């Protein structure tokens, strides 16, 4: 697990048309059933599991961070979730994904929030991704992009796309076709 996926840790090789993930300083090998430190990742890209102190996370933490980066790119809002601290970060996420989904996630993993945090978060309905589309970003948003984003930004880490599933997603069909035609 990289555990610090963010734009500053992605290098672009334009000539080879490749992305490289750098700064593996917080990375750790994943072992099922192991509990991991939640004090990792950069705030705007932290998965909900870190924000609710759930130590049983896995590779999908990095997929959440990818989803945050992707949302920032297609909606031209960087960072997409802009919390002032970890509690505010969870609040900003809940305002978009809704508290019903958050509460289902907390219940499934028997996570109890601090009463102050629970009060701060309040109650919010899930927002439609279309609410973030405007004249400046409309050309970046497609049905495939929204579907891809929606499958990455899930409270429950077990419901997120895996890296393999993400690479096979329809959103990347044109990229795969172009690479195949270039003989790569």
TrEMBL record:
ATP-binding recorded as keyword: yes
GO molecular function, one term: protein serine/threonine kinase activity
Keywords: ATP-binding, Nucleotide-binding
Alphabetical list of InterPro entries matching this protein: CK2_alpha, Kinase-like_dom_sf, Prot_kinase_dom
ATP-binding among keywords: yes
Domain Protein kinase: 1-172
A Pfam family matched in the record: Pkinase
Entry GO terms, CC: cytosol; nucleus; protein kinase CK2 complex
GO biological process: regulation of cell cycle
Protein name according to UniProt: Protein kinase domain-containing protein
Species of origin: Aegilops tauschii subsp. strangulata (Goatgrass)
